[in-house]
Amino acid sequence: MAGEQAGNRYEGDARNVVQAHRVDVMNVYNAPGPVEPPSALPPAANRFHDREPLLRQITEAVRANAGEPTVVIVAGLRGVGKTAMAVHWATLERDRFPDGLLYSDLGGLSRRGLGGGIGETVTYLLEQLGISGEHLPRSDQGRLALLRSRLARGKVFLLLDNARLASEVERLLPASPDSVVFVTTGGELTEVADLAGRQNAEVILLRELSDEVSLDLLRSLIGAGRVDRELDGARALLRVCGGWPLAIRLAAGRLKTRRSLGLADLATRLEAAPRRAPEGEWSVRVVGDEVYGAMPDEVRRAYRMLSLHPGGGDRPTPTPRAGRGPRVVFGIGAAAALLGCTEAEADALLDELVNRHLLDDEDGRFVFHDLIRLHARSRAEDEETGEDRDAAVRNAVEWYLRAAAEADLAVNPHRPTTGPVFQELRGRPSPYGSGPEGVQRGLGWLRAEHQNLCALVYAAEDRGWHDLAWQLCEALWGFYLSLKHYDQWIETHRIGLRAAERLGDAGARFRMGIQLGRALYETRRFAEAHEVLGRTLEAATDPLDRATTLEFIGRAHLDAGEPGKALPFFQQSKDLEETHSRIRGVGINLHHLGRTYLALGRADDAVRCLDRAQEIFEGIPDPYNRGRTLITVGRAHLEAQRAEPAAAALGTALEIMRAEGRTYQMGEIYESLAQVAAMMDDPAHAAELRAAAIAAYDEVGSPRADELRDSP
Predict the structure, then answer these.
(1) Residue 220 burial (10 A CB sphere; 0-12, 13-18, 19+)
(2) Taking 70 as the threshold, does the pLDDT of residue 423 lie above it?
């Protein structure tokens, strides 16, 4: 309209916006779509009984606690239903939490032999909020700050399961007054009273079910008619179960598999058992013995052998607790490996165990309650030889190794690998497919099995299976490179490096050294990184292994802000790669040289190296590195005040990163394009690009979004 300034705006709910700003520059914006709120709680119990007064007590506490987050501490012994009650309440009240339902098993991540602790707990919670990989701060403190920032607003439910340390709990509490935090503890949480006082927490002491509610639960499990016909027998049976929901479920599983067994008869058998455990554990153990004794031989063997699946709680801890640790969750493939049978045969055996309430089925994956797994492992130790137990575990480790290598190849098919399993699989069709979809499917499998794979690294070390320990670490490379679980990355790879050294395998020693070294320099532990990488370089005999190690040493110096020290390492690495015709390595080092020259203020030298790197990546199938190089090319032209070639390079990089699904990199590109627009004296366009960068950073939860908002 006359008298009004023409312009374009990027706002509203549009998903794809194309702006032809000039004939020679086209910018395409993808606005972030709606993000589903996370729902990460374990499955709710199929039958939940009693607890109504306690549920009302919690709801009233939440209503009365306006103005600050509500903390509910649920204390009780194992098997009494603490987690089930927390999940049940959250499910009933889920409309109260439009911003998500979050979950962390603190017993599974803290000092459990999985390299965990507060950093790993925070990482999992951020992933549930959709923030992972390179979008995560590198330090534990940075991640904790980001989590607090994200939880400071909105309405979320957070379940901190199996807590032991009050200090850990307090560091994770959100500031949002509309949030609710449940903390469950089996009596091991230190300073419960102090924590409750400081946080004005509601304390729920969860005890065994009442007699009448126990009867209702039994009726729901085996049928009201059967219970009411044998009411005296049912009451006698429930006295043995002591009001423990887990024991009642096991007894019901026994009764369902033998319809002719009288409830009074079962009670008589159970009452005769000697009492050699705490009340609740004794109930589960004695009912478990009865259920176990009545099973067919092949089902008993399956029960025993499946309990051998490694878990984090199997390793010694500062406060040992037999059978505790993260839930062991596994699929049919792993079960078949442990049992030494086909997947169809394993499926039938798993069904038998689920029907007897010895396993829980969670969407095709199977879970032992820790007390039941403890019982099953005691049976395995009594009835299986050490050789047979180790053979079953080795079968499982080998199965997981192969599956992890397949997933890793889907995530990063272009990287060189060392382990024999990779040599066997490379070149075969991937079960995950190819391209971005294959990457996501492979990462999805690795994410689901990550805790199992970490536990397997420990199991392999404990048994002296050094060949498997380091290969498992190599197969985790794509996962760690993408999702940055630094605590576990470093812990497992220290084991992998020890395994390679004990084997005296130069190739394995190299692979573990560079993978561990990268985790160390990415977490800014530069002295440790240089120590590991220096020893790796000394031990490397293959010239291409030396080239990669030199590159990583250069990257450690560059990350530390020492471009002058980095330069000769990249030059030496590039020369070795050229001498041995590994063209991808040449391109990678040219890119790093370009970054280094930029840091040294030598923009022309940077562009020269980057142009050569760009030519290389245009000729080989490595779109991600091509895109990364083009981003640096664009920045180099920006440094040299060359707006048009900067816009061209960044525009091509944007197309590549969009096709790769790399939202964070798209944010980086929009940010650089905003600088190009400002250089071309177009503030309106610069503001639009800046808004697109913030939107991209927001989509992945990067703190860079707030930094941009706050900067002039």
Answers:
(1) middle
(2) yes
- Which tens digits make up the pLDDT trace of 439-477? 889 999 999 999 899 999 999 999 999 999 999 999 999
Going by pLDDT thresholds of 50, 70 and 90, the confidence category of residue 279 is low
Long-range contacts of 560-567 (CB under 8 A, 24+ apart): 560/521, 560/524, 560/526, 561/599, 563/596, 563/599, 563/600, 564/600, 566/592, 566/596, 567/593, 567/596, 567/600
Report pTM: 0.78
State the pairing for strand pair 101-105/157-161. parallel
For residue 148, give Cα distances in angstroms to 143, 200, 231, 515: 9, 19, 53, 30
Structure tokens at 326: 């993260």
- CA pair distance 672, 649, nearest whole angstrom: 11
Beta bridge partners of 204: 74
Top-confidence residue, 619 or 288: 619
- How far apart CA 217 and CA 235 sit, in angstroms, is 12
Can you tell me the distance from the alpha carbon of 593 to that of 571, in angstroms, rounded to the nearest whole number? 7
Pairing of strands 202-205, 70-75: parallel
What whole-number percentage of the chain has pLDDT above 70?
87
Name the nearest CA neighbour of 185 among 333, 75, 299.
75
How is 226-266 classified by DSSP, letter by letter? Answer: HHHHTHHHHHHHHHHHTT-HHHHHHHHHHHHH-TT--HHHH
On whether the CB atoms of residues 579 and 567 are closer than 8 A, the answer is: no
Quote the Cα angle for 58-164-245, to 5°: 55
Contact call for residues 610 and 594 (beta carbons, < 8 A):
yes
Return the higher-pLDDT residue of 280 and 107. Answer: 107
State residue 136 phi and psi, 5-degree precision.
-90, 140
Cα atoms found within 13 Å of the Cα of residue 80, Cβ hemisphere only: 23
- pLDDT higher than 80, residue 537: yes
Residue 354: name the closest of 250, 449, 280 by CA. Answer: 250
Extract the runs of DSSP E, i.e. beta strands, from 324-457.
329-330, 360-362, 365-367
Instruction: Name the residue with tokens 């950093």.
Output: 119
- Map residue 466 onto helix, strand or coil: helix
